[in-house]
């Protein structure tokens, strides 16, 4: 596990540095093809939503609903109603902690 | 030639300072997020040193969370790094856009590109296709410091806070990323892709090998190939 962790850290550092470094140098200032931009701009919403749903409704490889599911849902309602991020995060943490204290 | 010349002398200092001030709210939220990353990574089996090293040399929140999520579910280092690379793919068009505003030889421009993070890039955009690179450097600096400091505090969290799960700190990460998803949803296409990506991952959780569900969600982004250039947001 320790080796896996360090290989992951090294790999993440290299791919992040390469991706951030290639952009300003690539294409010599020319435009990126529009179809490629279309895919890349959709990458963030697809992956971020996958992280949100799997971390809210699953634990490891099992579907699971717990106190933090309710907390994140409360935070989500605040966000959708255009409330501030800090308030949404505080509410999510508070509701989760409260439910765990009661159970 | 860019319409705005690269700032020099006092203008350069003014840009750096303006960027620094504008980034302070993001640095504050980044501190909380990084702290929750530290706690999350410790739970996934990371040592405190590994957490701090990762935050210091990767410095990409969503990529770090994606990689550690995959390791925590039992995935391989390869799957974790692939997820991080896909998550970071957005820095490619961001870097291409800022390229003409970063003078110098290729290696020096690549080095300056390391300062690109979402909030800094967006704020350094002058809105006319040019970027103020000094504003970018000024705004990335406090975010980097708070990111590493938050990671350090989170990594030591077990000692500082006691039982962190009782405090509900594991709710920070999904809530913060939900905020990013909501910010990304600008039209029906992005909404549909976000919902589809999330459901694909969740549907695969119980049946696919660890790491695959999140990676599979990226396939939904191929929908972008269908979009016509004038529709691109």
List keywords for this structure.
A: mainly alpha, 2 strands, B: 233 residues, mainly alpha
Principal-axis shape of chain B equals globular
- Give the neighbour order of strands across the main sheet of chain A: 1-2
Number of domains of chain B: 2
Through-space gap between termini of chain A: 33 Å
Q: Helical residue percent of chain A?
A: over 70%
Description:
The complex is a heterodimer of chains A (103) and B (233). In chain A, 78% of the residues lie in helices and 4% in strands. By secondary structure, chain A is mostly helical. Chain A has a domain at 1-30. Chain A has a two-stranded antiparallel sheet with strand order 1-2. In chain A, helix 3 packs antiparallel against helix 4 (85-102). The longest helix of chain A is centred in the first third of the chain and has 24 residues, at 2-25. Chain A is extended and about 60 Å long. The mean pLDDT of chain A is 89. Chain B has 233 residues and is mainly α. Chain B folds into two domains: 10-167, no CATH class; 185-233, no CATH class. Helices cover 67% and strands 0% of the residues of chain B. Chain B has helices at residues 9-43, 48-58, 61-72, 77-88, 91-98, 106-113, 118-124, 133-155, 157-161, 172-184, 188-204, 212-217. In chain B, helix 1 (9-43) packs antiparallel against helix 7, helix 1 runs parallel beside helix 8 (133-155) and helix 7 (118-124) runs antiparallel to helix 8 (133-155). The two termini of chain B are 25 Å apart. The model of chain B has no long low-confidence stretch (mean pLDDT 86). Chains A and B meet through helix 1, helix 2, strand 2, helix 3 and helix 4 of A and helix 1, helix 2, helix 3, helix 4 and helix 5 of B.
């Amino acid at each position: 596990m320790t080796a896996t962790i360090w290989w992951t850290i090294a790999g993440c550092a290299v791919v992040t540095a390469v991706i951030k470094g290639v952009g300003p140098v690539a294409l010599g200032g020319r435009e990126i093809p529009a179809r490629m931009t279309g895919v890349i701009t959709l990458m963030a919403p697809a992956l971020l939503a996958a992280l949100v749903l799997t971390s809210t409704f699953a634990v490891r490889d099992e579907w699971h609903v717990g106190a933090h599911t309710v907390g994140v849902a409360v935070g989500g309602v605040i966000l959708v109603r255009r409330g501030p991020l800090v308030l949404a995060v505080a509410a999510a943490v508070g509701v989760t902690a409260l439910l765990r204290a009661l159970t | 030639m860019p319409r705005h010349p690269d700032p020099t002398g006092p203008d350069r200092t003014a840009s750096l300072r303006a960027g620094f001030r504008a980034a302070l709210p993001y640095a504050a939220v980044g501190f909380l997020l990084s702290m929750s990353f530290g706690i999350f990574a410790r739970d996934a089996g990371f040592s405190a040193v590994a957490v701090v090293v990762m935050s210091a040399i990767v410095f990409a929140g969503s990529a770090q969370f994606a990689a550690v999520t995959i390791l925590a579910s039992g995935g391989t280092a390869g799957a974790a790094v692939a997820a991080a690379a896909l998550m970071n793919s957005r820095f490619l068009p961001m870097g291409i856009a800022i390229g003409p505003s970063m003078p110098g030889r290729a290696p020096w421009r690549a080095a300056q590109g390391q300062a690109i993070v979402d909030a800094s890039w967006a704020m350094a955009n002058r809105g006319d296709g040019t970027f103020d690179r000094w504003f970018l450097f000024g705004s990335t600096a406090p975010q980097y410091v708070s990111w590493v400091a938050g990671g350090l505090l989170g990594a030591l969290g077990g000692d500082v806070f006691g039982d962190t799960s009782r405090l509900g700190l594991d709710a920070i990460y999904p809530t913060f990323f939900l905020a990013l998803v909501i910010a990304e949803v600008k039209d029906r296409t992005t909404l549909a892709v976000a919902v589809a990506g999330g459901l694909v991952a969740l549907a695969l959780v119980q049946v696919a090998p660890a790491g695959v569900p999140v990676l599979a969600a990226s396939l939904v982004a191929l929908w972008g190939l269908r979009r016509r250039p004038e529709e691109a947001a």
